[in-house]
Specification:
ten-stranded mixed β-sheet
Length: 739
């Protein structure tokens, strides 16, 4: 009976399976990609035969670690150490690839041996501007040995193609450490050291010895390195967060479908109850139907997730980072989620069915919704939607969650961009500049010599350099650390509310929001990246991103983050702001190594914001896709339920066009109201995130709200086309005989 009931309404069942499959597929794909990133990092170090990895303490991202290359000899001299090799890792954009993992290795070090060449030759100590690339990059870009590729405005000749079996590395490239240091402007620096021991059993003893001697270093076993990195944990959490959004919408669709199944079979359930079926038996039947749908949908989702990851991994632009890693535990988790969806989505409908009174159920009239119709403002369209209020509310909830995701995430991105603009505007900058060659602003390194040359231009009033990075601090894993020169104009917008401004070394001023959350006051110490500073002042700028951070001198920030004589950004104040366009053109022509934009447009020019915009677009597409399936399912159920009613209308002279228009209007109205609810829900989510993370202040420009509402309307239009067409094609006589 269970399969017969599900097969009775094939369209409804198929749409429900698609909704569940998309939710489960999102889990499989996103978590597999997160696992792939984690596994890639683990394999990168454990596969190199390194026993220990040494990096800078208290860094948010492993690529931000900056160690003096001269530490190699000191590490190599320790008891039990067989070999030490340095590595510099970064991200690069190359020949149409927006992202490529780029590693700088010592040609004679043991770590480079893991890159097994399948064509060409390896790097040597004499190599200059030569590169070996992974098989995925070679195939995706159709590159071979002898070809060249451009990295950071420099041409590199491909001398070899390697394969490691790890997607992250096979989608990247390797150059010599010296070339990487020159290109990344990190003279005599490495991101980390990899250590091979004489005896693996001595790993714990060697780790303790290194950390005891160097208190600003952190040592981990090679296989544990990625698991302890905060960035990797965030990637895993983000993957689950997006997957949760998909299954939330899918769960609403599941409950909606099961309720519709009960409404449609109310008289049948009444007959079963009259024949002696107990409440528990009815409840069990409905729950089993829901669980069967979940199992089939889970299997469909697993296949969909695997196919999606494989397709993304075959695209050159994403091959380096979207190589998923599948495991039995992942599929078990996905199926458990699917079964959970079935249990939660089916419990209330099953309970409701078991509580039906047999006599009332057998008198149920599906065409009238089981009772007398009310007259609702808005005529037949509103009446049809309100006939099944629970169904309409659940459908609205599914669409509203999708719209809320778009508004909430878009609002946070807009707010983040506004704060970046406010940071530049607060420092009186008319133009902002960063390194033109970077694909991630964390790697931006503008030479101070360029800033001095810019300052010499007649139209320029002043130039201020700044370093911005993220580092964990006491009770704050995301402390924003900014470095400003105490003598330049940009630091003046940090208005001191308590204490005094920076005047000496090892001093810091802290934002009011950060001081309150960390319970800090003037005179207290604060530890940043292994160094201790004394708080001499508490400032307020009115920009939460700054007021949740800490400011130290530019020179000390350069030392902490390994950027001698470099800045992340350069703020340029003009004598006459009306000359911004002409100065912008002059700077672009004279300094191709930097990317300059107006302060108001600065956020849009940063690659990270463009990448985040693409990511939010992908999340929005997923949410809308799942929500769209729910709308189509609901409208189809509404049409099936009113088949005889539609037959009567056709017999009374309603034309096909009028029937089609009625169903389409129902779908569009439902989506429009859902869009408005979603906008309000998205704003509410934004406020919750702001309470948790004070520096996230969402902004909701009119175009964002308008885009969300238009998207909801489009969703309703597209989702209603097929049900409306089906309704308009019904034969009047067959519709009147419909049971």
């Amino acid at each position: 009976m269970i399969f017969r009931n599900l097969w009775r309404r094939r369209t409804r069942t198929i749409l429900t399976l698609i909704g569940i499959g998309l939710g489960v597929g999102a889990i499989v794909a996103l978590v597999a990609i997160g696992n792939g990133l984690m596994g890639g990092f683990v394999e990168m170090f454990s596969g190199s035969e390194a026993d220990l990895v040494v990096s800078q303490a208290d860094v948010f991202d492993p690529s931000m670690s900056a160690l003096d290359e001269n530490l190699r000899d000191q590490l190599a001299s320790l008891t039990g150490v067989a070999s030490v090799t340095g590595m510099l890792n970064a991200e690069a954009a190359a020949d149409g690839l927006p992202y490529m993992m780029l590693l700088g290795h010592e040609p004679d070090g043991f770590a480079i041996e893991r890159y097994k060449l399948v064509e060409g030759e390896g790097l040597s100590s004499r190599s200059r501007h030569e590169i070996i690339i992974g098989k995925l990059v070679a195939d995706g870009l159709n590159k071979g040995v002898g070809d060249s590729m451009k990295l950071y405005d420099s041409a590199f000749r491909i001398v070899g193609i390697y394969e490691t079996g790890t997607g992250m590395e096979d989608g990247g490239g390797v150059i010599t450490l010296s070339d990487a240091q020159t290109m990344m402007k990190k003279s005599h620096q490495v991101s980390m050291f990899q250590i091979k021991l004489k005896r693996v059993e001595d790993a714990d003893r060697a780790r303790e010895a290194i950390e005891r001697r160097f208190d600003d270093l952190v040592v981990t076993r090679s296989g544990e390195y990625a698991n302890k990195e905060m960035l990797m944990q965030i990637v895993a959490g983000l993957a689950w967060g997006i997957a949760f959004l998909a299954i939330l919408i899918g769960g609403v669709g599941m409950m909606n479908t099961m309720l519709m199944s009960i409404f449609e079979r109310t008289r049948e359930i009444g007959v079963l109850r009259a024949l002696g079926w107990r409440k528990a038996r009815v409840l069990r039947m409905i729950l089993m139907e829901s669980l069967v749908l979940s199992v089939i949908g889970g299997a469909l989702g697993a296949v969909l997730g695997v196919v999606t990851v494989r397709l993304l991994g075959a695209i050159p632009a994403t091959a380096g980072i979207l190589q998923g890693e599948f495991s039995l535990s992942l599929f078990v988790q996905a199926f458990m989620v699917a079964l959970g969806l079935g249990a939660l989505g089916g419990f209330y409908p099953a309970w409701r069915a078991s509580r039906l009174d047999p006599l009332l159920a057998m008198q149920y009239d599906a065409d009238r919704g089981g009772g007398a119709s009310k007259h609702w403002p808005g005529g037949m369209i509103v009446r049809n939607l309100m006939r099944r209020r629970i169904r309409s509310v659940l459908t609205m909830l599914g669409i509203a969650i999708a719209v809320a995701a778009i508004v909430g995430l878009g609002g946070m991105l807009e707010g983040f961009g506004e704060q970046f603009v406010a940071m530049g505007a607060g420092g009186q900058a008319d133009l902002m500049a960063l390194d033109a060659g970077v694909s991630d602003m964390a790697y931006s390194a503008v030479d101070e010599k360029i800033a001095k040359r810019i300052a010499a231009i007649p139209q320029v009033e002043s130039v201020s350099g700044m370093i911005a990075s993220v580092a964990p601090a006491e009770n704050n894993p995301f402390m924003i650390v900014m470095g400003y020169s105490p003598h330049e104009s940009a630091i003046k917008h940090f208005e001191i509310a308590d204490g005094e401004p920076l005047s000496a070394t090892r001093q810091a001023i802290i934002g009011r929001l950060a001081a309150d959350s960390m319970d800090k006051k003037v005179g207290d110490p604060i530890d940043l990246v292994g160094s201790r500073f004394r708080i001499v002042g508490i400032y307020e700028t009115g920009t939460p991103l700054e007021d949740t951070g800490v400011v130290i001198s530019l020179r000390e920030a350069q030392a902490l983050f390994g950027r001698p004589r470099q800045t992340s950004f350069v703020g340029i104040e003009l004598r006459d702001p009306r000359q911004a366009d002409s100065v912008l053109q002059e700077l672009a022509a004279r300094f191709p190594e930097i990317r300059v934009s107006k302060t108001a447009e600065f956020a849009e020019s940063i690659p990270d914001f463009r990448a985040m915009d693409v990511m939010i677009g992908g999340i929005s597409f997923l949410a809308v896709l799942v929500g769209g399936v729910g709308v189509m399912n609901t409208v189809f159920m509404s049409v099936f339920e009113r088949t005889r009613e539609i037959g009567v209308l056709r017999a009374l002279g309603w034309r096909k066009r009028r029937i089609l228009g009625m169903v389409m209007q129902e779908s569009i109205l439902l989506s429009f109201v859902s869009g408005l609810v979603g906008v309000l829900l998205g704003m509410a989510f934004g406020q919750i995130f702001r309470a948790l993370l004070p520096y996230l202040v969402p902004q909701y420009p009119p175009e964002l709200i308008l885009r969300a509402v238009i998207l909801a309307l489009t969703l309703g239009t597209i989702s209603g086309i097929l049900p409306a067409w089906w309704a308009s094609r019904l034969d009047p006589l067959e519709a009147l005989r419909y049971e």
